[in-house]
Amino acid sequence: MPMDMDKATATARAAELRQLINRHNYLYYVLDRPEITDAAYDALMRELEAIEAKYPDLVQPDSPTQRVGAPPAAGFVTVSHAIPMFSLANAFTAADLREFDQRVRELAGVDKVSYVVELKFDGLAVSLQYVDGLLTTGATRGDGSVGEDITSNLRTLPTVPLRLQQPYTLTVRGEVYMPKATFARLNAERQEAGLPLFANPRNAAAGSMRQLDPKIAASRGLAIYFYNLASIDGVNLTTHADSLKLMREVGLRVNSDWVVLDSIDEIIDYCLAWHEKRHSLPYEIDGLVIKVNDLALQSRLGYTAKSPRWAIAYKFPAEQVQTKLLDIEISVGRTGTLNPTAVLEPVTIAGSVVSRASLHNADLIAAKDIRIGDTVLVQKAGDIIPEVVGPLVDLRTGAEEPYVMPTTCPECGTQAVRAPDEVAWRCPNVSCPALLREGLIHFASRDAMDIEGLGPAMVSALLAADLVKDFADLYSLTQAELLTLERVGVKTADNLLRAIDKSKQNSLERLIFALGIRHVGAKGALSLAQHFGTLEKLMAADQADLQQVPDIGPKMAASIVDYWQVEANRRLIQKLIASGVNTRYLDATALGDVFADTTFVITGTLPGVSREEAKQLIERYGGKVTSSVSRKTNYLLAGEKAGSKLARAQELGVPVLSWEEFLALLPAGTV
Ligand code: IVH
Q1: Which of 234, 314, 525, 630 lies at a CB distance of 3.0 to 4.6 Å from 512, suitable for a disulfide?
Q2: Which of 315, 340, 370 lies at the terminal end of a domain, its last residue?
């Protein structure tokens, strides 16, 4: 923002930005059809933040900047649900479904009923109230009539609109969930930090929403799907399908996997098809929900004490499989945690063969009395991480052996230790070979230095051949050295060297995360990089300086300070710098890269600028201009008298920008 922007201009621009950002949120989160790059979106957000920082009275509760606003609460306030939140009766078999349909038809006195079938999201049910289009209250289900006010937490979800696209007063119900991949990442981080793990994404979502500090909910990558419009003022709807469409139109995120089916046979087939299909979804569902489509018929059918008569939940059979626990091995994590892992007789669970599963920690093994040789139940938590549920005690033969957690590290023999507030045992040896191996795997991983081709197998090969002793050694590897490894040819070697070389250009946050400082995740690393700008400044910061940084708490700050204290770590940093690894934060927008990876086509007469000038502007911001519209075109910049290119763009669904809309994508004050 130009610092001299006057109040009137700022007011107008802030309103314009709020509208633009909300529109892009809708395109991204609800329609799943983004029109601008993440960098362009971030630039809009930053511009709005800058204006609001200069003129704080322009901040409005529905501003997209106001998601994490409220300070931690002392406790949750209760909220009464004007319309109770019912749960659903369950069906487990095709026969249960037929019985449900039969009852509905009998009660309704009709032969045929049309149903909507939706996914049953496995998360936390919430109710949101919008008044004149503004989000006012969000609550948990509680006992169905009284829940807890979790508005500040719900506001942090990017998929919860703070303002609807039209000023409706309505009550809407939905499910907050945690995507499978987010769950896996969260638990992996918790395991490394020695914290107790969440049993499944549902518990993780519910646990996150019940945190008093909205920052925690904000950091957990949660999302929402809305599935029920409990009330809306001034609109008469006739079917549930129409209400789903209306919700989506006003900006409420509705899952698109719903269908209208007219016979119970079709519904049964549809449910059975989802038994397998559900594993390909990025989030967990535990069944399907079948709802009478006609809303008048819904009211006639009414409710029992607990649930609607017009709907039923079809629950998938639990995917727990029985197998033999052959052995328990300890794998050493990146921060030295000793993770007990079950070695199993291979079984197929949720579509894939499982031969190893997590046993979490020694306390859990003891609490569940899991013994080697036991027949155990195994399931996938979040459908991805296999875990041992527990032993089938009745099937014991007497030959099973209780497990004794080793007191030393299996890789280096060092005495294991356990911090008083942690469940995990750790190897405290900083030169433990497992730490280097796991550390290298992490260093090269996608969110860290992103070195393609440097996965676990290659890391093990490099270590076995003694080619690397620390992270920095990667940068002095040669083709000749790599060619000494088994199954590595010239092409693999060159690709790897190129990927390693490329990683030198990474922005600082990747390097910070890659170092593997305890408690510093990808998010914390980004905050640090943005705040300090260079590694040098970060290293000069003391505990108090670090705690000034958003998202950095005392534990992380202390861990960072400790990290630089270790002589070996300082030497490693010097070596990385000497190898040419970048240690600066590269702000894509500050560099003018708002259009990185974005291709434009320009057509028609633009107001006051030539096409050549427009082209130069796009290129200055990192974009590309091509001459013909294809599926790869990100935008058509169209002026007056745009002809066939405009038609072609519309045909292909390529977003069309006017000159004004185009300018709005640029950081303000730069044109
Ligand atoms: S409809 C009166 N639709 O399942 C309408 N519920 O066991 C009640 N759920 O508490 C809910 N996906 O948390 C409905 N598409 C969906 C759903 C859904 C998940 C949850 C919801 C509810 C529970 C009922």
Answers
A1: 525
A2: 315
3-class SS at 300? helix
Give the CATH number, domain containing residue 17: 1.10.287.610
229 lines ligand 1 (CB under 6 A): no
Tell me: do 52 and 157 sit in the same domain.
no
- Asked whether residue 173 falls in the same domain as residue 274, the answer is yes
Distance 173 CA to ligand 1 centre (A): 8
Q: What are phi and psi of 288, to 5 degrees?
A: -130, 155
pLDDT of 73 reads 66
pLDDT digits (tens, 9 = 90+) for 240-260: 999 999 999 999 999 999 999
H helix intervals, 504-553: 508-515, 522-532, 535-540, 543-547
Question: What does the pLDDT look like over 367-419, one tens digit per residue?
Answer: 899 999 999 999 887 667 788 989 988 889 999 999 999 999 999 999 999 98
Distance CA 327, CA 356 (A): 10
Residue 119 CA, ligand 1 centroid: distance in Å:
9
Q: Does the Cβ of 314 fall within 6 Å of ligand 1?
A: no
Q: Is any atom of ligand 1 closer than 6 Å to the C-beta of 228?
A: yes
518 and 608 share one domain = no
Active site residues: 120
Structural domain includes residue 584: no
- Tell me the C-alpha distance between 161 and 64, whole Å: 9
Residue 510 belongs to some domain of the structure: yes
pLDDT the model gives residue 394: 84
Domain presence at residue 22: yes
Q: Say which DSSP state 36 is in.
A: S
pLDDT digits (tens, 9 = 90+) for 70-101: 666 667 899 999 999 999 999 989 999 999 99
**Cβ-contact 189, 521 below 8 angstroms:** yes
Nearest atom of ligand 1 to the alpha carbon of 86:
2
**Nearest atom of ligand 1 to the alpha carbon of 258:** 15
- Residue closest via CA to ligand 1's atom 17 equals 120
Residue nearest to atom 18 of ligand 1 (CA): 120
* Burial class of residue 80 (count of CB atoms within 10 Å of its CB; 0-12, 13-18, 19+): exposed
Domain residue limits at 82: 78-315
Q: Which residue, 544, 578, 612, sits at the end of a domain?
A: 578
What token pair was written down for 541?
A: 């910061």
Q: Is 334 in the pocket of ligand 1 (CB under 6 A)?
A: no
Strands 599-603 and 624-625: parallel
| pLDDT, tens digit, 9 for 90 and up, residues 142-183 | 888 999 999 999 999 999 999 999 999 999 999 999 999 999
Same domain for 572 and 504, yes or no, is yes
Considering the domain architecture, whether residues 62 and 139 belong to the same structural domain is answered as no
Instruction: Look at the chain and report how many structural domains it folds into.
Output: 5
- Can you give the CATH number for the domain in which 467 is found? 1.10.150.20
Two structure tokens written together for 108? 């309704």
Ligand 1 pocket residue status of 156, Cβ below 6 Å: no
The pair phi, psi for residue 45, each rounded to 5°, is: -60, -45
341 and 355 fall within a common domain: yes
Are residues 305 and 163 part of one domain? yes
Do 95 and 216 lie in one domain? The reply is: yes
Residue 176 Cβ contacting ligand 1 at under 6 Å: no
